[in-house]
Here is the input.
Amino acid sequence: MPVINTHDPERQEIVSRRTFLFGGGVTLLITGIAGRLYQLQVADYEKYQDLAQENQFNRRVLTPLRGEIIDRFGNVLASNRKNFRILLIPEQSRDIDATIDKISQYVPVPDEKRARIIREIRRRGAFTPVEIENNLSWPEFSRINFELPHLSGVLPDVGETRDYPFGEASAFVIGYVGAVTDRDLAAQESDEDRTLLRQPGFKIGRDGLERTYEKELRGQAGKMNVKINAHGRVIEEFADEATPAIQGKTLTLTIDADLQQVAMKELEGESAAAVVMDTVTGDILVLASTPAFNPNDFNVGINSDLWKELNASPYKPLLNKPLSGVYPPGSTLKVLSAIAAQEAGVKPTQTAYCSGKVWYGNRYFHCWKRGGHGTVDMKGAIKHSCDVYFYEIAKQLEVDILANVARKFGLGQTYQLGVSGQKKGIVPDREWKRQYYAGQPENQPWFQGETLSVIIGQGYVTSTPLQLCVMAARVASGRAVRPRLVRAVGDLVLPEPNAPLIDIDHDHLNVVRAGMNAVTNEYGTAARSRLEDPAWQMAGKTGTSQVYQITAEDRAKGLAKPEDLPWERRDHALFISYMPFENPRYACSVVVEHGIGGSRAAGPKAREIMRAVAAKDPASRTPIDPRSLVQRAGARQREG
Amino acid sequence: MSTLILPGPRRGPRERLSQLHWPLIILLTMIAGVGVITLYSVAEGNWRPWALRHGLRYIVALSILIVMGLVAIRYWMALSYPIYFAALAALAATPFIGEINMGARRWIELGGIQFQPSEAMKIGLVMALARYYHGLRAEQVSHILYLIPPALMIGAPVGLVFIQPDLGTALLLAATGIIIVFVAGLSWRIGLIGAAGAVAAGYGAYRFEFLKPYQLERILTFLNPDRDPLGQGYHLLQSKIALGSGGLDGKGFMHGTQSQLKFLPEMQTDFIFTIFGEEFGFVGAVGLLLLYLAVILTGLSIAMTAKSHFARLAVIGVVATFSLYVLINTGMVMGLAPVVGVPLPLVSYGGTVMLTIMAGFGLVMSAHVHRDQDVLRSSDLL
Here is the structure.
């Protein structure tokens, strides 16, 4: 039914009406769009203007350089070095996994590390840059920079990282820095501190002086406004208006890095500790502990294998042995026993006959020398380390007198060094035993037989190598010398701790000193450790502290000599010394774990260390002025 | 056969060239010019990669428009159903032979040329519906039986595009189709019932998770932009900041900080209006809107003066598509419509869409040049 189209006015009219309606509708909607534009661009202009500014301008925190740590002569023990690293801003990365895949074509990113990065992103949110890899070599770093257009959200950065040039040798003195944890953040007092700590790769003092002096070493953050694009890339820096960061204060130590290295070398291969002190000022010149970890392994994030290895080693490389290692002082305590005996009224001329053993209570107490020493006086007893002489004294000696002397000479206490983990050790007396056996009344009374053990440095009594060194220094000087590790913080030179005369009869000390001199110089127990230079006549005292008592069964099995025992059951070897004999200046203690005998394992090491100490004198007595060093550091910073 | 055609005055090619609607061509060229300068700015003052190609494409597309305009409207009418069904067939084939791009299968390759069947369908649907209503009398339009064919004609491509998935284009096709049916004279009563049904269907789609997660995400973000400051909402917020900070007279050509600093996504395509608005301010943006309105109203006036029903409806369909592009895109960048990936016609960079738009206006031009010709209601047209 082909119908001609021309005349359908009704249809045309509807279409015309509806077209008008449609046109009107569209006009209305476009007017609405224009109205919305008016609202955005004219009415709310200022609001969006501000938001645009916020978009563009960002306040960057300028991370301060961490303060340096230097030894008494200005040798750098801890400083900062350039660290090429790559950061990722999660928010700007299209696909984090893909980006890390791409990066790992240039720098390997193990799965373990990838998991850590993802965890960190979740914890810190999309806006905070996260460190993907640090300590890149220059070729690696430049390759990443070259590929940057294909790596969305990746930000190359030149940061600073802690550097410990002496590595293991300074590990226990300085400690190390590590990554910031949530707990660190919570502990900060101000938001500004928290912001600083959130900077990628920021490190905080984790152990040792790095931790104790965190506040002083950290420095002050600066601020700078920067113009950024949507990818967070800085387009323009407003350096003129910036507040620069201020480097942390320089920490000047009492340590002598050279001597420290000599000591580390001497102790190498052993599980051992050595301390050298200035007997006048209390300055610690050497604080050595072996084996040690390398603090440089820690500040870049230690890998778990190495951590496990360090923890599992029987040589305890994570233990700061001079301060935290606790050992029975053994015969080194006899110098104090002799003083205590005199305080109790024993004349140094009093003699005893040593047959090799003494019956007391219900058993024999043996001298280390099976055949006995014959008749000895006090000096001879020290020189030969005769146990029987002291057993005889101990039969009458009140243990509290011995304990009192021990405390006066530095045992049973910790010192203000700025390094945590110091152990107090035990100076046993009647009160101590009462408390120790609280709840076991039958064990609480002191038995005189126990004094026989304590007087030769066995039994309950324990000490640290630091305390033994303090003891030697106090015997040498007669003053209550206190050890210290930090000479100056920034340009503030800390006053030398005062060392009052020890409240005892100093004539008693001379007997002990003569005994110690005989140990090394009159063919005593440490004759092998004698220093030949008459200007540096060294007095000493050996010690051997029992770890395991060889039983009758062991003897039956043929285990008679200590060398037959497994390493961990052998006796500890100890040695204390000071020099020069007349007019003393330096004291030293050495402990070699399971070294069997003080005279053969510890004494020779002490001798070599002291020989090096003597060689550095008198320079050691005049350390550099920290104020001049601070200026030097300041100049260095400006150059950088 | 010639008796079946009611010829208007016959004209030669030269005369017909002078019959072209030159004001419309000038308006379209001005809009494309805005596109060129904005793309130049987006590329930080470079002709490459976008501005130059945009301009060249426009010249090609304009030639196509003129050629199409010189082809008599009755030929276009005759081609309506073939074009529609060819596009439909291509759409149906897309899921099997299409290229996957950005998670959807939208492109197919034909003789070395990539094209999107959904774009061809935008023209095809308009022509087919116009062709259909050309053959109906006024009283038939709202008859329920006569509603079934257009419902199928709209529903089939919309469904196929939706499963690609391309929600934006599906909605655009549906809306264009509905506008044509409405302008053709659908009764208000049926229109309201249909609208109610659509709302119910939309709610159902939401309830039964018919939408892809990213589609739902876009709609939810649109409803509450602060929900996800770094996802979809982030782009919208950045777009508003850029526009708003443009102020009354803008930051100046090539001085749009937000866009130059790349805070905006898809700057050369979907968010180009923002760039223009930031650099030329309220004055510039409203000026561009007025250009668009002028094109729309010119198109509608051409529809009103065309003699044939096919021409009228086809022109309205093309103008409707164009209007929807403009409204959805501008509404989208300032938070009045969801971010659905609809470009700003002739300004956004992209060849396919430009070709679609200009081909559509080729039809409009043909309707104008041949406005005096009417065509039989139904017959062998050629």
